[in-house]
């Protein structure tokens, strides 16, 4: 399918969904709307806390009810909601349309997954999407239906869902406390609610997210042979990467700067005009995605534990960042040396984390380090076994981080 045809199909499918009332207009514009609405929720919570301190519980209640309305809007515009709606349409179409026609329904799902990957890992869902495409090409409607169901199940509960639900619960607890004339308890609940909103606020307005999108556009323009557009995309990525100055995470600052320097060198040498630049650009994009996930995990942990200085957590997320980086060298660019360097970095962070941890977590981290080290010799000739071991190791590390 050509690019113009693809865009037309996307527009037609989206128009159909909107005119039939199956998807709210907010759901199509999820990322920016989500971040904006989250900021408004935060504003209402802050206003409510100020009203409590001023001895005006009635005003605080009004602000909190408005916050609940905004949370309902955020839930409607989540990318996961968007995907659920689109997969429902695809499954229904499988009942009475030809498989090759249902393939058009996968386009908006792909768009929603691209939006969602800013804050959560969606590789599993993307693989199920490709499985669905394959089954549809072969005309196997039932297998396609099962793949679509697996796609939806893989996103059943995301990091976005958790803070939203918790934030709503804390707001309702605050309202209950106000009705019982216990403002101190209401204040405590709202303080916890603020942390959840800050996590949800992570979206395409952040410099890392904008850099990632610019790099993705660079890969698209390179594939189309639009070299001037590629240069413009890379320059935009440089601008956003230069703004990644967290001051609280030295690894993020260092990795963002390293990426910025490499992109700048590519521009200066005009190497982006060469055919081999496709893998280089894809690698840059992959690293930006890794940094986004790293930032999301850090915010999620702060929301969950309220312990901003947890050194062990930082070591584990740094290990995951470099393990994620290694994926590109292992399975995409076939750059064994790059993959080994990233695996070595991941193992180093895991070794340091094991020294910080206590049993039984210490044993689990040490076992993970061994698995990462074992991937090194497979970098020269990665096969399906290496892919399986890598996925399992990354999943175990991610589960450990989420369980903290």
Structural summary, described in words:
The protein has 404 residues and is an all-alpha fold. The protein folds into 2 domains: 3-154, no CATH class; 204-402, no CATH class. The chain contains 19 helices and no strands. It has helices spanning 3-19, 25-28, 30-53, 57-77, 79-93, 99-102, 106-116, 123-137, 141-154, 161-179, 183-200, 207-223, 227-242, 250-268, 277-305, 311-331, 336-356, 361-375, 384-402. The longest helix is centred in the last third of the chain and has 29 residues, at 277-305. It starts with a helix and ends with a helix. Mean pLDDT is 80; it is low at 1-32.
Give a topology summary.
Blueprint: H1 3-19, H2 25-28, H3 30-53, H4 57-77, H5 79-93, H6 99-102, H7 106-116, H8 123-137, H9 141-154, H10 161-179, H11 183-200, H12 207-223, H13 227-242, H14 250-268, H15 277-305, H16 311-331, H17 336-356, H18 361-375, H19 384-402
Helix pairs in contact: 3-4, 3-11, 4-10, 5-7, 5-9, 7-8, 8-9, 10-11, 11-15, 12-13, 12-15, 13-14, 14-15, 15-16, 16-17, 16-19, 17-18, 18-19
Question: Which terms summarize this structure?
Answer:
globular; 19 helices; mainly alpha; 404 residues; 2 domains; disordered N terminus
Radius of gyration equals 23 Å
Biggest β-sheet description:
none
Structural class: mainly alpha
Number of helices: 19
Task: Estimate the strand proportion.
Answer: under 5%
Coarse morphology: globular
The residue ranges in which pLDDT falls below 50 over 5 or more consecutive positions are 1-32
- Oligomeric status: single chain
Q: What share of residues is helical? A: over 70%
Query: Based on DSSP secondary structure assignment, what is the total number of beta strands?
Result: 0
Q: Average the pLDDT over all residues and give the rounded result.
A: 80
């Amino acid at each position: 399918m050509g690019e113009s045809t693809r865009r037309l199909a996307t527009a037609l499918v989206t128009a159909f969904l909107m005119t039939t009332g199956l998807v709210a207009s907010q759901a199509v514009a999820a990322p920016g709307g989500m971040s904006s609405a989250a900021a408004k929720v935060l504003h209402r919570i802050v206003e409510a806390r100020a009203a409590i301190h001023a001895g005006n519980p009635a005003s605080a209640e009004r602000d909190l009810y408005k916050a609940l309305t905004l949370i309902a809007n955020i839930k409607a515009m989540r990318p996961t909601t968007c995907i659920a709606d689109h997969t429902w349409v695809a499954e229904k179409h499988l009942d009475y349309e030809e498989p090759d026609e249902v393939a058009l329904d996968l386009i908006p799902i792909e768009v929603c997954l691209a939006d969602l990957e800013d804050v959560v890992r969606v590789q599993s869902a993307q693989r199920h999407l490709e499985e669905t495409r394959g089954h549809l090409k072969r005309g196997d409607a039932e297998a396609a239906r099962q793949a679509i169901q697996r796609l939806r199940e893989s996103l059943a509960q995301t990091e976005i869902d958790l803070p939203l639900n918790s934030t709503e619960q804390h707001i309702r607890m605050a309202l209950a406390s106000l009705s019982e004339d216990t403002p101190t308890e209401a204040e405590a609940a709202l303080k916890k609610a603020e942390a959840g909103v800050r996590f949800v606020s992570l979206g395409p307005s952040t410099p890392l997210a904008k850099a990632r999108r610019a790099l993705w556009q660079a890969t698209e323009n390179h594939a189309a042979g639009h070299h001037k557009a590629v240069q413009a995309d890379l320059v935009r990525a440089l601008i956003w990467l230069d703004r990644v100055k967290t001051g609280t995470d030295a690894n993020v600052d260092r990795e963002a700067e390293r990426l910025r320097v490499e992109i700048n060198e590519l521009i200066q040498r005009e190497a982006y005009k060469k055919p081999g630049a496709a893998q280089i650009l894809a690698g840059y994009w992959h690293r930006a995605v890794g940094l986004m996930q790293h930032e999301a995990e850090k915010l999620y942990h702060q929301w969950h534990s309220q312990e901003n200085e947890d050194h062990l957590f930082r070591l584990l997320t740094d290990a995951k960042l470099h393990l994620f980086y290694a994926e590109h060298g292992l399975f995409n660019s076939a750059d064994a040396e790059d993959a080994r360097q990233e695996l070595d970095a991941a193992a180093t962070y895991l070794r340091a984390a094991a020294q910080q941890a206590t049993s039984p977590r210490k044993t689990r981290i040490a076992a993970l380090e061994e698995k990462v080290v074992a991937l090194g010799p497979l970098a020269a000739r990665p096969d399906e076994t290496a892919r399986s071991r890598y996925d399992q190791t990354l999943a175990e590390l991610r589960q450990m981080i989420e369980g903290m």
